[in-house]
Write the structure tokens for this entry.
Amino acid sequence: MSVQVWTFLFVGITFTLYLVIAWRSRVSDTKGFYVADQGIPAIANGMATAADWMSAASFISMAGLISTLGYAGGMYLMGWTGGYVLLALLLAPYLRKFGHYTVPDFIGDRFRSNAVRIVAVICAIFVSFTYVAGQMRGVGIVFSRFLEVDVNVGVYVGVAIVFVYATLGGMKGITWTQVAQYWVLITAFLTPAIAISLNLTGNPIPQLGLGSQLLGEGTALLEKLNQIHADLGFASYTEPFVGGWNKLNVFCVTLALMAGTAGLPHVIVRFYTVKNVAAARWSAFWALLFIAFLYLTAPAIGAFARYTMLDGLHGKTEAELPEWFRSWEKTGLILWMDDGDGRLSYTGGDRIEENELFRSGNLGTIQVAGIRQNHAKWLSGEEGGEDGRVVLRQAGLVGPDRDIIVLATPEMAGLANWIIALVAAGGLAAALSTASGLLLVISSSVAHDLYYRIINPKATESQRLLVGRSVIGLAVIVAGVLGIYPPGFVSQVVAFAFGLAASSFFPIIVLGIFSKRVGTMPAMFGMIAGIVFTATYILGSVYGGWTNWAFGIGPQGIGAVGMVINFAVTIGLTPFFPAPDKSVQDLIMAIREPEGAPPALDIDISDRAE
């Protein structure tokens, strides 16, 4: 069967499975809708957390970044993994013991202020919509290639599926759907990795294959890759801190991703769905184990893809281009601009060869998408203006779009059609699992934290559910628009979301748990200062043409600076404002009391969700 037929088969089976689970898990009360009745087993919650966590950025884009950036791409792996450990050990057990539905709920009650709650709601919505844009872009990419439909159509289909199972089952339906999505995405990621490792090195374990010799070459894979990079003018694949990714930027991006992970509302809420604090700790353990299967394989996939692509494309004539190139060229995410000699030159550094690979994009008044061969005059600048290739390089549109690397790798390696289709189904599972969690965060922030806790505290269960489901309906429409018009490639957009979470939530959650002195106004001003600075810097860099004026730090790492600003403003203002009242201080001490220890305070926090 063809790739398209296999894709229809896998996507049809998996989407049917998700909808059946959602129908069987449908809920009729807010506790089931927002925290799955707090009855999810730890190991199942670990799988759901892993699927929620391993978004399109992890599945589709992270290995693509490692493939493109080499050593520097590891900052995404380190930041996201380290951040999850930070969340599991430092924050999750305390937040679960506090027992509310959402992060804004914790912040509003901890700082005894609806104003702070509203600021937290705005931050949660801003972070979640930024994050969901990357997921919807991933859905569109998968559909545009493997089902050969327009990217926009793919986004519409993804939006419809998420809407159905998110509104039917709420957190309960999403959780059990994510359990199924985890097994789909991890199988889809590991299968081609094992097959390619066997084909290239004879070793079925990708992590060992990465350090093995190529079959018939007598040369180690990474050594060969460095040699190819040197021949083509790229920086060494294994050399650290090259180009714009100096030590400061690598450190800041890693720190922003770590702190952002520990402040992400859709990940934190997963720890509210288990029975108790012990289950929260165990679900964190299981989630980290399940995440490790993919994260420890991503560097190998990245290197395999880089070697296969460079070895298979450079110097080829148009007649010699592989079939996978022609298939992906239809999406506009990889283009060959032929200037005359008929051979493709994929080079790095400042070298401008006659024929190069580019990906599509909108460069102001220059619409690059759709350019194919024989645009020699525009490319050479004969029609006036700059050399077109220089314009493309300055815009960063050199080489294949990073988001296609993982999806195209099985085709590059000549694997079976069913494996290619399986990867497509896995990419969709990764994107949709995270999108559903994010949409529920948006819904709970508006329906629970804003509507129920502030606007109408006397709202009935049915009214609260109606508002929650209505908000999801509106949110998926906005998510679809963001998927059609994303502000960047998947991992870039997701990195922006992590920076926003790091600069807004992480400092306030940490200080809210571990400091009895920090009061309402310092917390509110700290959150505002952190997220406004970070959002302004990101928007200015992406849309305003700003240079990296903050110590040379790029927009993907600026969340680390925003986090420091948040901490500095909050701690700096604390001496000038009154401390929280005694009930709040007692509450802080109670949630920090080890589980099972004799109660030091006469405070009941066993069921603060209601």
The chain has 24 helices and four strands.
